[in-house]
Design a protein that fits this description.
It comes from Aquifex aeolicus. Ferredoxins are iron-sulfur proteins that transfer electrons in a wide variety of metabolic reactions. InterPro entries: 3Fe4S_ferredoxin, 4Fe4S_Fe-S-bd, ET_Ferredoxin. By secondary structure, the chain is α+β, with helices and mostly antiparallel strands. The strands form 2 sheets. A 4-stranded antiparallel β-sheet has the order 4-5-1-6, with helices on one face. A two-stranded antiparallel ribbon has the order 2-3. The chain is globular and about 35 Å long. It has one domain: Alpha-Beta Plaits, CATH 3.30.70.20. The chain is 20% helix and 32% strand. It binds iron/sulfur cluster. Iron/sulfur cluster binds next to α1.
Amino acid sequence: MGMKVRVDKDTCTACELCYDRVPEVFKDVGDGIADVVQVDIEDGDEKWMNIPDNLTDEVQEVADECPSGSIIVEED
Ligand code: SF4
């Protein structure tokens, strides 16, 4: 089963960790606030990106390390 990821921009503290580490998935959308580089699934206000299989571990790591817990990873 694939995994998907989204960013809660309201709680992101612009620490730069996620897009420094995984620029294939995260980007700076202004003032250092992060979001996913591509929207594959829209669910109301939630914009999810499907995580490429080869990046799943790295995305999970930055989600664990995000200081504000703003990166949400779920099974797709
Ligand atoms: S790691 Fe978390 S706090 Fe830091 S830029 Fe990414 S989403 Fe924001």
